[in-house]
Amino acid sequence: MGITKQSPRQVLRTLTDSAAALAVLNKRGMLELRDPREIVRSLRDAEVFGPFVTVLNHSVRRNPHSVAIIDERGPLTFAQLDKQADALAAGLAAAGLRPGAVVATLCRDHRGMVLALLAAGRLGARVVLMNTGFAKPQFADVVQREQVAMVLHDSEFLDLLAAIPAAIPRVLTWVDAEDKVDRRAVTTDVLIATHDGGSVPAPENPGGIVILTSGTTGTPKGAPRDKVSPLQSAQFLDRVPLPRENTFVMAAPIFHGTGLSQLTLGWGLGNAIVFQQRRFDARRTLANIAEYRAAALILVPTMLQRIVDLGPEVLAEYDTSSLRVIFAAGSSVSPDLSLRTAEAFGDVLYNLYASTEVAVAAVATPQDLRAAPGTVGRPPVGCRVALYDDKRKKISEAGVIGTIFVSSGLSFGGYTDGRHKEIVDGLLCSGDIGHFDADGRLFIDGRDDDMIVSGGENVYPLEVENLLAGRPDVFEAAVIGVADREFGKRLRAFVVRAPEATTTAEEIREYVKSNLARHKVPRDVVFIDELPRNATGKLVRSRLEAITD
Asked: Are residues 294 and 419 in the same domain?
């Protein structure tokens, strides 16, 4: 297969993007252009180890005794992580893990997960980041498809491990006393202790990382990230002023792109990352911000919703004045949530629109969210976004809905099972539907496969959901289509009432009718205690289909 030759225009665009990325990284303090030797070292490390080990190596050379992470067991410096990662890599090699082999991690956020990623990178092993919300069938399917040779996992997932062949070696990354782990079990602590001072030779090629899709409609697909240029960090930093040499509170799980990317960037900027909780707790998150005077909070919108819903009195109990950035990614932030966040924390919210496949697409700044609540903003440096209609003709008019296509150097090259997303004009389909406003800001109207056709009219559930979420008596809402003899599909709304609210179904229907077109009014309104979500906060609509009242 030959190498595709770039046109002069493409070459010029690549050079222009690279120069712009270097300027962004220099401005944010990610690269020191005055120290070309360090730039060369980092580029060389990236070619051999991949981005995660590269940023640790850079941090060790720059600030070895600065705190890198803080978890329930306390702090670890960059130098301590470096030493322990070397020992763990030697231990895993002794246990049979080879360069190019596939290792799965099934961990919450803590040092064991971080060390597993670093050790695998040192070995050149390929890492599959497993979702902590997996059921046994999903976990078993992914292990088989990805040809996993070893599993590194927390003790709370011992039961899940029964779904895969016993011959696959496993190593415990975190042990809770209540899980009654066999004393003979292999743990990362034991491997580190017994291989202290050990190391492994540099691999010939980086192992890479496989990030899994959300799996809300079945077994998740694998999107590989084999080689990533350090310049692509500029896509995150272009519109988000992440702080330097400060502290991040990491609420988002690092088994997915949001948490992992911001952990890597945070280190690159010399920050300490606070994990201090293995399960999300809104109050604990606020306490961590106050205790560590954190400058940045990394989370998904569902977590932000939980925090804001604590209310002004609870929020006032914690000093969060140190926050300069709240970085939310994974889905768009509703207009109501963006306004309430600004009221509670000031203009510090940045919403990243991205996906496992296309990676970075757009960023909404606090100014964007003030001017146009609900927007996901504009593409950062090196990214391009375009809309196409059903016949894949490009849409240029404001307000016209189309399928979103994205070009990003971080976009994947195909799923690990050989399938791919649709490509038009060199841009990758995100699977979302959206529109631009007159000022060029992007809005997400929903998922392509979530669209409901009722009585011949197209309805995107997100519009109705955002409307309902703005009511003070509604905690959250979801809308799906169900079979209807007359209209083909009718809308069913699932509503979680706010505490002590007595909202009725008729009030919900009348509210939608007074704000949106008649065909967008849900015929059915079902009140439930909570919406079904996966471990990354994404709504699992398939679970709603079985709920009727």
From this structure: yes
Mean pLDDT of 262-275: 94
Specify whether 208 is located in the same domain as 131.
Answer: yes
Residue pointed to by tokens 């389909």: 429
Q: What per-residue string of b and e applies to 65-103 under the rule 16 or more CB within 10 Å gives b? A: ebbbbbbeeeebbbebbbbbbbbbbbbbbeeebebebbb
Same domain flag for 255 and 367: yes
Q: Tell me the CATH number at 163.
A: 3.40.50.980
Torsion sign, CA atoms 170, 173, 179, 184: positive
**Res 493: pLDDT:** 92
Shared-domain flag, residues 256 and 365: yes
Structure tokens, 33 = 């252009």
Reduced to 3 states, what is the DSSP secondary structure of residue 71? strand
Count how many domains the chain has. 3
**Tokens found for residue 391:** 């016949």
Rounded to whole angstroms, the Cα distance separating 422 from 428 reads 6
Q: Which residues contact 233 (CB under 8 A, 6 or more apart)?
A: 21, 25, 30, 264, 265, 268
Rounded to the nearest angstrom, the gap between the alpha carbon of residue 293 and the centroid of all alpha carbons in its chain is 24
**Domain containing 269: what range?**
229-446
DSSP structure string for 11-44:
HHHHHHHHHHHHHHHHHHTS--TT-HHHHHHHHH
- CATH number of the domain that 463 lies in? 3.30.300.30
Do 398 and 353 lie in one domain? The reply is yes
pLDDT tens-digit series, residues 273-325: 999 777 899 999 999 999 999 999 999 998 999 999 999 999 999 999 999 99
Q: Which of 266, 220, 164 shows the shortest CA–CA distance to 535?
A: 220
Q: Are 334 and 469 in contact (CB under 8 A)?
A: yes
Three-state SS for 277-298 is CCCCCHHHHHHHHHHHCCCEEE
Closest CA to 260 of 270, 252, 268: 252
Helix residue ranges, H only, 232-365: 234-237, 257-268, 282-292, 301-308, 312-315, 335-345
Nearest C-alpha neighbor of 112 from the set 59, 175, 180: 175
Q: Which pairs count as long-range contacts for 81-85, CB under 8 Å and 24+ apart, including other chains?
A: 81/56, 81/111, 81/114, 81/115, 81/118, 82/56, 82/57, 83/196, 84/115, 84/192, 85/53, 85/56, 85/115, 85/118, 85/119, 85/122
